[in-house]
Amino acid sequence: MSCAMGTIRYILFFFNFLLALAGLAICITGVVAARTKGATFDNVVQEQLTTPAVVFAIVGACVFIFAFFGCCGALRESHCMIVTYAVLLLTLFLLQVAVAVLAYTFRSQTNSVVSNAITKAYDDYNLPDSKTKEWIDNMQQELQCCGSSDNTKPWGSSTPDSCFPNKDRSKTIYGQGCIPTLVNVVEAVLSLIGEVAIIVGVVQVVGIVFALCLANSIRRAEMRGYA
């Protein structure tokens, strides 16, 4: 094994070790994003937030598995394994580009989706046997917001206890409406997904280049051995 080939081999191994850690980070980010809903997000932004998050978690798991595969290929100096790894990494890179586009597309739609859903929910707040009241109260406490677009809509003079910290009416009412608050939360999560996908994608391109260089070095060494 030449010095250059050995250097590339160990660089690729170290790179894949870091990529495996990145894969775990991606997976955890996706899982956390997918679970960031509960009573606050159900039936409001489920598609906007959950779909990219679940795909992101799956991508993270694949990154981890592929990185482990790349480590094995580098240690064994297997031309076939390394080329396969490069192809898998390229496929995953293209998928991550799609995830980033999906996240930013959903982000651009967040304001209208949240506004429509929240406005309708507040319209149903006082309906008999409505489950909407419970999750609106939970949302207002959790996000520390009140009303739809601001803290006077749609309450008028009948502001609920959930508009106050710990439902204590002696305290100052939450000043921010729930629509802008919820939009900010969802946009922040989707932006995080898109940014991480892009950063890891750039790292993967570097991995593909190193993998192909090592595969080429191994092939040349094999050809010299047969000569």
Automatic annotation (TrEMBL):
Key words of the record: Disulfide bond, Membrane, Transmembrane, Transmembrane helix
SUPFAM superfamilies with a match to the protein in the record: Tetraspanin
This protein's record includes keyword Disulfide bond: yes
Cell location: Membrane
Transmembrane segments: 12-33, 53-75, 82-106, 192-215
Gene Ontology CC terms, in alphabetical order: plasma membrane
Disulphide-bonded residues: C145-C178, C146-C163
Record's bilayer topology term: Multi-pass membrane protein
Keyword set includes Cytoplasm: no
Record-stated family: Belongs to the tetraspanin (TM4SF) family.
Protein known as: Tetraspanin
